[in-house]
Amino acid sequence: MNAAIPDLTGKVAVVTGATGGMGQVIAASLVHAGAHVVTVARNPARADALRARIGAQAANRLEVIAGDLSRRDDVLAAAQTILHRHDQLHILINNAGAHFPDRRLSADGIEMHIALDYLAAYGFMTRLDGALRRGRARIVNVASDTLNDTRQIKLVGPPRPATLDLTGVDSLAELNPAAGFVPFEAYARAKLMTVTAGYALAQRFAADGVTVNALHPGIVATDIIDDLVPRPLRPFGALIRSRLLTPAQGAETALRLATDPSLSGVTGRYFNRDIETTTPPVSHDPVTQQRLLALSEIR
Question: What stretch of H or E contains 85?
Fold first, then answer.
């Protein structure tokens, strides 16, 4: 599906979630194309598998920074380290994310889906601002089409898009509350927030040639799928995984959005694999976008 990645020699890419299945493919592909790749890992030892995939000859183009992306202080510290070492950034792929089977809070008191699946991406998009502008970067946010339909079993009824009502909300800590908490919907809302903020930031970045796009990679056989499979279908988990996309197939759209010359200048879009498609109307609402950005600022 993807054309060959162009020569990226001299380019610097930041890839989060690069120690996981799809992230490893993305990071290794960029390194093999000549880029210097920076990633943030809670446990840097987990990057050993990525180093092995890259190979000794190119391992010097992988830079690993320690940090827990669910913690605001760690996101700030990682961003500061990146800025100290790199004046220009040419690619930012926010791939880090997880689905949690129950409600958990981050160290900052934010529900974990929002902390990891949304705020980490927002933090890098905004805190790396200057270097991204100087590099006329492509920003790619890995989302999930659960934002368009939060039903886990889609056999009956119309799609049920994720919701994002910020009326009267004074803090992101108020979102995905304990009352009525549904993990799958919480996950979808966090992905919707990432896309919504991305649309707004695409407009802010446009004058400096920075693009911001989001994608659903397809249903990929990674660790996250085990929690996303509905309980009645879990006995068939191995069979289900065998029918899903491989991490390499899932990585294709992110790599294309980050590197394909034919997509230069394309911004503020959402792709379901290689097909540009729509997201819920609330994600395009300017009032919601600006309120979300205000609530997301790291102070």
Answer: helix 72-85
Give 298's pLDDT tier (boundaries 50, 70, 90). low
Q: In this structure, what are the phi and psi dihedrals at residue 216, rounded to the nearest 5 degrees?
A: -105, 120
| Residue 178 counted as domain residue | yes
pLDDT computed for residue 237 by the predictor: 52
Instruction: Tell me which of 118, 122, 187, 199 is the catalytic residue.
Output: 187
Identify whether 118 is a catalytic site residue.
no
76 vs 53: CA distance, rounded Å: 29
Backbone φ and ψ of 211, nearest 5°: -110, 150
Range of the domain at 47: 12-296
- Say what the pLDDT of residue 49 is: 87
The pLDDT score that the predictor gives to residue 1 is: 44
Sheet with 62-66: strands ordered across: 62-66, 36-41, 12-15, 91-94, 138-142, 211-216, 269-272, 275-276
Q: Give the range among 2-6, 69-73, 81-85, 232-236 with minimum mean pLDDT.
A: 232-236
**CATH number, domain with residue 292:** 3.40.50.720
Element (H, E) at 27: helix 21-32
Crossing angle of helices 120-127 and 183-205, in 10° steps, is: 10
Looking only at the bridges linking them, the beta strands covering 91-94 and 12-15 are parallel
Query: pTM for this structure?
Result: 0.91
Give the bridge partners for 37, in sequence order. 13, 62
Q: Is residue 7 part of a domain?
A: no
Residue 28: both structure tokens together: 């290794």
Share of the chain above pLDDT 70, in %: 90
